[in-house]
Design brief:
The chain has nine helices and no strands. Helix content is 71%, strand content 0%.
Length: 165
């Protein structure tokens, strides 16, 4: 079953399930150093949007080396706690086969933004792939309860065998 989930998860990634639309750059926390706060002020949202679109295209095309280079360039423009940066890093890790890295990044996103459906769905798919089908099912049912159904959520629930209570 794990092989089937992995193949289906890869297909879901190809359909763009792995990333949400570009999120606003996260604001620095009150404990962030002044240099990071200044860096956020100097961010060009249009440039970030173009960079993210280029990364997404590279990932959809399977250009992992190019997408990693573009993510590194994006990292130079954003603070390390940026949700946009974390999402791109998570998707790259997932596409690259770094399941542990992807899970850690998706978990961080979900911890910070519990309503991030794409990160939660991908985290659940990876949990199921690792054998935690019960945990993945619970995560998906909770997501459905908190935010309603969607085609992506229904597909993920079917993949992991999450049943409706």
């Amino acid at each position: 079953m794990n092989r089937w989930i992995a193949q289906t998860a890869a297909a879901a990634l190809a359909l763009g399930l792995a990333t949400a639309a570009v999120a606003a750059v996260s604001e620095p926390s009150s404990a962030a150093p002044a240099a990071e706060a200044r860096a956020v002020e100097n961010i060009d949202p249009q440039a970030i949007g173009r960079a993210v679109a280029e990364i997404e295209e590279a990932l959809r095309s399977g250009e992992l080396v190019r997408s990693k280079t573009l993510i590194d360039e994006l990292a130079a423009q954003l603070p390390p706690q940026s949700l946009t940066l974390l999402r791109m890093q998570a998707w790259h890790a997932h596409q690259s086969g770094d399941r542990a890295g992807a899970m850690a990044l998706y978990a961080e996103i979900v911890q910070r933004v519990p309503a991030d459906r794409y990160a939660a769905i991908n985290l659940a798919l990876l949990e199921a792939e690792q054998g935690d089908v019960d945990g993945a099912s619970q995560r998906l049912r909770a997501l459905r309860f908190s935010g309603g159904d969607s085609a992506e959520l229904a597909a993920a629930m079917a993949l992991v065998g999450a049943t409706r209570p």
